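Worked Example 4.2. Consider the chain below.
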Amino acid sequence: MSIVEITHHDEVIYRILDKPPPEPPKTPRYESKLERQLKETKITPLKRTFGYSETPLKPPDHFLKKGEGMTQKTKKSDHKCVKGNLPPVPKRPPLEKPTEKSKINFKVVNIKKVLRAKAKAVEPRLVDTRNGHIKKIKSSGEVPEYCLRPDFGQMPGYLVKRNRRIQKELDKVKYAEEHKKSLCKLIKEEERQKLLDDLKHNWQIMQKAFLQLPMLTDTIPKVLKKTKMEQELRQLEKDIALVESNPYIYIYE
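Applying the procedure from the previous section yields the following structure tokens:
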């Protein structure tokens, strides 16, 4: 066993946790391939400005002369000159005859209308103040106006038309119900007998097929087939009994 003698040290156990954690290594900076190629080839980039701060003007002797400005291009037309005999010039249409003026003297007609016209009825008014305040009697409520009208207390015309339209629709529905055809139809005796014979024939065929089934039903398909045929036989027996017990059969459409 060896002995180590420590003569001097400045380490304190309480200061170990106060030290900051070491910084992680920095990732290398991104450098584009294009920038590396430019540095290798030493191509100077283009330098441009926004133009003159003040546009220099031309001297007075360099003025714009004829034919030096911007001209508009002439558009080529699709017109083609026709050579040879041209069609004749169309003739001028004949002049229309002037319309005859009416011989009616409208002044005389208007004078006669005015003479025959009846004078406008004076509206009854009432002056109730010394200053000449005029009040119309008709709309004042002092004279019975609406109760003397010929249609007072009668049903309006639009309600009469509406009631007539509703009554027509009700009459149509009533007529359709009275003359409606019956939905049930009686089967004739011949059809009933034929239906009964067909049911019995089907029952015989089904009974024959049922008797031909194997006695041993050891699989699921055999069991299902047997139960299905038994159900069909029972249904046929019910139908035969129903048709035999009811001589009158109706069919609803």
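Strands lie at 125-127, 134-136, 184-186, 250-252. The longest strand covers residues 125-127. Compare this with Example 4.1 before moving on.
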